[in-house]
Amino acid sequence: MLSDWGLSARHEHGAVIIAYRRDGKDLSSLMVFDRWMHLGRALVHVGGIGGVETKPAAREMGLARRVMLGTVEWMADRFDMAMLYGIEDFYSKFGFAPCVPEYRHEIRVADADRAVAALAVRPYVPEDKPALLALHAQRVQAWVGSMERDPESFNPLARGSDFGRHAKIAVALDGDGSVVGYLMYDDLPDRLVVGEIGGEGNDLFESLTAFAVNAARGRGTNKLLLSLPPDDPYVLWARRLGLDSKIHYPRDHGCMMRITNLASTCRHLVPEWQPLLPDDVPGLCLQTDIGAVSLIRDGGSLRVEEASSADLPILSVRQDLLSALIMGYRSVQEAISAEEGAANPQARAIASALFPPRWGYTAGPDRF
Question: What rounded mean pLDDT belongs to the chain?
């Protein structure tokens, strides 16, 4: 319980604020946001941690550590996983590991200028919000790391590709005037950074690119910057224009995750794992530092039992590394070879099928 840590919880600003308080004031606190995250065919319940703060006069007293430890314990009964954007050499102490890379692609404006607008493009207006939400939901259904968006609370203009950046949005229209796509970019005076694109199709991508070229020239820059995953349909299309790509895998900062409830995480992942589990194996036992579960083939389905099974191949791994495997950030062969876990050849093969390397991605507007 939070009270065991001397902490309290209250609801404010669409989140739960967990704090160590004295004389009616927060000395150290953080915010937990309730989210559902796409992980391929599955949805995982994620507690997003943000707004971590300790007042200057209360630092060096272990309060941030107390708040983090109490929060992780509190989350175990409420969320499958915890996620945050962290500084280096701090959050790993609480079982968090990097799980989502950062992507940056560049297109020269001179190359992108080949695009020819086939659709009308205009600025976003609030009445466009339902169309944007529908296009986003359609696009991210099978992605890893993308969040469900609440139609009531989500503000499309609140954040661009990263923290501290507001967004601007352009929408593309078909012949009937319906929104068929959009481009979200950072509201910056000297750069053109694209944080999100909705919709698909050659005409749409040509039209949005032509708009981006004009916007980039208006900012005095000769590059279009894309903060999108490598398998984004627009990035794949834009290869024809000439694309320079960079992927950064942080060692101990950035987007970090940990498992808070192993059994519920695995149960929510059944829709993703069931078609990936090889037909000729009975299942897999996952042994971690926060417990063990057994994934058992039961006829044509997969069930999760909250216990070890000596009858199944065993993958033994810390929960933080398991988080990275689930997100596709690290590979089974690499992780086990680095002696961060243990598995016999059969267990490695099964785990490699369940945890393929993937392009995890959380769009800027969904960060916390």
Answer: 96
Is residue 233 located within the same domain as residue 109?
Answer: yes
Task: Tally the domains of the chain.
Answer: 3
**pLDDT at residue 221 greater than cutoff 80:** yes
Report pLDDT for 310.
87
Q: Is the pLDDT of residue 199 over 90?
A: yes
Residue 340 lies in a domain: yes
Distances (CA, A) of 22 to 11, 62, 64: 18, 15, 14
Cα 163 to Cα 99, 160, 172, 178, 212: the distances in Å are 18, 7, 26, 31, 21
Query: Looking at the structure, do residues 220 and 329 belong to the same domain, yes or no?
Result: no
Query: Is residue 199 left, alpha or beta, with left meaning phi > 0 and alpha meaning psi from -120 to 50?
Result: left
Residue 40 DSSP class: T
Report, as an integer, the average pLDDT of 118-129: 98
Residue 153: what pLDDT? 93
Cα–Cα distances (Å) from 160 to 26, 215, 264, 310, 328, in that order, read 29, 15, 32, 49, 25
Classify each residue of 98-135 as buried b or exposed e, where b means 16 or more C-beta atoms within 10 Å of its C-beta: bbbbebebebebebbbebebebebeebeeebbebbbeb
CATH number at residue 18: 3.40.630.30
Yes or no: say if 13 and 155 are a contact pair by the CB < 8 Å rule. Answer: no
Per-residue pLDDT for 85 more than 80? yes
Note whether 97 and 320 are within 8 A (CB).
yes
| Contact (Cβ atoms closer than 8 angstroms) between residue 357 and residue 328 | yes
Integer-rounded Cα Rg, in Å, for the chain is 22
List, as one string, the DSSP characters of 192-227: -EEEEEE---HHHHHHHHHHHHHHHHHTT-SEEEE-
Within-domain flag for 359: no
Each residue of 287-303: pLDDT tens digit? 999 999 999 998 889 99
Q: For the chain, give the percent of residues with pLDDT over 90.
A: 94
Q: Which residues pair with 216 in a beta bridge?
A: none
Q: In this predicted model, what pLDDT tens digit does every residue of 330-339 receive, in sequence order? A: 999 998 887 7
The strand order across the sheet containing 244-248 reads 120-123, 167-173, 179-186, 193-198, 223-226, 102-108, 244-248
What pLDDT score does 341 carry? 84
